[in-house]
Amino acid sequence: MSPTPERITAVDTHDIRFPTSRELDGSDAMNPDPDYSAAYVVLRTDAADGLEGHGFTFTIGRGNDVQVAAIHALRHHVTGRTVEEVCADPGSLFRDLIGDSQLRWLGPEKGVMHMAIGAVVNAVWDMAAKRAGKPLWRLLAEADPAWLVGQIDFRYIDDALTPEEALHILRRGRQGAPERTARLLERGYPAYTTSAGWLGYDDEKLTRLAAQAVAEGFTQIKLKVGADLEDDIRRCRVARAVIGPGIRMAVDANQRWGVAEAIRWTRALAPFDPYWIEEPTSPDDVLAHAAIREAVAPVKVATGEHVQNRIVFKQMLQAGALDVLQIDAARVGGVNENLAILLLAAKFGVPVCPHAGGVGLCELVQHLSMFDYVAVSGTTEDRVIEYVDHLHDHFLDPVVIRDGHYTAPTTPGFSAAMRPESIDRYTFPGGGFWAADPDRQQLQKGQAA
Predict the structure, then answer these.
(1) Residues 379-410 pLDDT 10s
(2) Residue 444 in contact with residue 429, Cβ under 8 Å?
(3) How far does the chain reach from its first CA to its final CA, in angstroms?
């Protein structure tokens, strides 16, 4: 008699919020008071090993409950599946989730539902990597290329990247992979920091944190811009004076401008040698990015953290609309869709410098960049992962930065699991922190308004 297969028995969801707005951490021209939050999911099973799958998507406060509800709406696709099935082929669940015709109507493949799908899919990959006894980057880098190609949905992108081309890229990436793995474990992956550059910080804090970043080995920092041009000129002057000419300085407008304003503003900041201008306009406007890129060169154009899916990334690449592609681990449909985007970037020869920060985004996206280095692009030249120094202590396997580099994770999984005590304390509105917080009722009123 064959043993009863182990199954996913529950999809637990949590609305977790941190009060980052009170110190202006995360503040930028479009988001002046973010409370960094995670719509968090835990896949529980009846397996004897007790291993769970953890995933989440990132929001900035109000609306996190909407994102949690979207994850909850996917439960019927997940519970009852065998653990072996989903870990052996996460793509099978990914295809079912994006194929739900009624929920798909709310996208399709974009917005709240797609982010919810990404959270669930990432939780499956976390569980698969734990069961394999490997960190996710290594599970992906050592996987059979044909199997990886089978994880990708080529619908809508095969005019730019065919399965055969993807397989060729991955097979080529196997050459020298063991040596790159060894270098990665020894040196880590290059990082840049945004911790100095939040828009709400005064000059003293900007100066102190920029100097600290250089002392800690970072070779690139980033400043938020876009609210006031004269203020941006002053802040860029201060930062450049602190870091000197040999450190790259990127600037980020967080979608603040139209085309003409983006061109004018970026040219005004050009004397301070910005390496890239990030999100200069709407993330959906492919042709606007192309026009801005042509007009502001040699300043590079970077975008991607709000690009909704592989299809928009495909068009950005086809139109020559960006110099730097910024994947986000938690906005598109999880690992499966990010595999497609990494391979598209490799096909077009565009470097990937992920968006991170937030709640746990550094923990997640490091795995995708390390996989890209070992098994896809084979290089870290002009490639860096964003780093923001907050909220890492809430994770069981937090990122470790050494001399301006991400240290390669060695713990099995996707580094997604939060500490149970952090979940209990920061679950909104009833967790220990929020229950005792005098501003909680005002926050709830604002959410209900």
Answers:
(1) 999 999 999 998 999 999 999 999 999 999 99
(2) yes
(3) 58
DSSP designation for 333 = S
Q: Which residues have a Cβ under 8 Å from the Cβ of 323 and sit 6 or more positions away?
A: 276, 293, 300, 301, 302, 350, 351
Catalytic position from the list 134, 224, 347, 405: 224
Per the annotation, the verdict on 394 as an active-site residue is no
In Å, how far from its chain's centre is CA 237? Answer: 29
β-pair type (324-325, 300-303): parallel
Active site residue 224: yes
Could you say which residues of the chain have pLDDT below 70?
A: 1-2, 25-30, 440-449
The domains of the chain are located at 169-420
Q: What pairs with residue 302 in β-bridges? A: 278, 324
What CATH code would you report for 169-420? Answer: 3.20.20.120
Per-residue b or e along 235-250, where b marks 16 or more CB atoms closer than 10 Å to that residue's CB: bbebbbebbeeebbbb
User: Which entry of 54, 347, 355, 367 is annotated as an active-site residue?
Assistant: 355
Q: Are 370 and 189 a contacting pair, CB within 8 Å?
A: yes
Upstream peptide bond of 135 is cis (omega within 30 degrees of 0)? no
Element spanning 203, H or E:
helix 203-215
Question: pLDDT tens digit string along 92-122?
Answer: 999 999 999 999 999 999 999 999 999 999 9
Predicted TM-score (pTM) of this structure? 0.96
Q: How far is CA 308 from the centre of its chain?
A: 12
β-pairing verdict for 274-278 and 401-402: unpaired
